[in-house]
Recover the amino acids of this structure.
């Protein structure tokens, strides 16, 4: 009677696990090498493309002074100042005449009342077109300066009838009041008139 032989089963699970671990390890090492190589090339590329900032100088100096003396000396920017000899002066076809002035102007208009410590200074003007082309009369073309060279622009509320924005044909004229709000202790003023934003001439009246 022959003996019965029981087959011996091979334990293949451990081998599969070992091969799986080895494969994953190799794949991980390969990924790390690829990432490292890519990083090296990226650094080299950006170093080559980078800008040399050693020769770049930025000037952040800002002039914060309140000096307005440049408004009274226009020779540097090519603008000519015409000082009026009397009440009338002309520049670029704009003939401007000062008809009257009133300091500490009083009004019942709530919106025109000056702030505490201030007063209203009213100038009555006439603007005439002496050129062959149309011109624009505009109260905002006037700027007032006090003895300390502080500047003041046209105050919308003030004496009536105020000077309006108006297109004037040849030989046409318009007139009205231009009101400024100024400190109560100021009495000496200079009034400048600029025919337009791009004007090369400015009229100046000593009031």
């Amino acid at each position: 009677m022959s003996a019965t032989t029981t087959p011996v089963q091979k334990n293949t699970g451990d081998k599969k696990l070992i091969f799986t671990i080895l494969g994953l390890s190799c794949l991980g090492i390969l990924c790390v090498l690829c990432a490292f190589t890519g990083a090296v090339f990226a650094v080299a590329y950006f170093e080559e493309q980078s800008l040399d900032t050693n020769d770049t100088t930025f000037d952040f100096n800002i002039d914060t002074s309140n000096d307005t003396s440049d408004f009274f000396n226009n020779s540097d920017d090519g603008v000519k100042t015409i000082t009026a000899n009397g009440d009338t002066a002309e520049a670029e076809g704009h003939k401007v005449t000062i008809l009257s002035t009133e300091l500490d102007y009083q009004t019942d208009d709530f919106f025109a009342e000056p702030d505490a410590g201030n007063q209203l200074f009213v100038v009555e003007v006439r603007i005439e077109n002496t050129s062959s082309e149309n011109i624009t009369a505009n109260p905002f073309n006037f700027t007032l300066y006090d003895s300390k060279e502080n500047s003041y622009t046209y105050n919308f509320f003030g004496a009536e009838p105020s000077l309006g924005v108006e297109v004037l044909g040849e030989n046409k004229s318009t007139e009205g009041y231009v009101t400024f709000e100024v400190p109560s202790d100021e009495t000496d003023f200079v009034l400048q008139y600029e025919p337009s934003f791009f004007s090369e001439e400015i009229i100046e009246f000593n009031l």
Summary: The first strand starts at residue 80 and ends at 83. DSSP finds one helix and eleven strands in the chain. The longest helix spans residues 13-49.
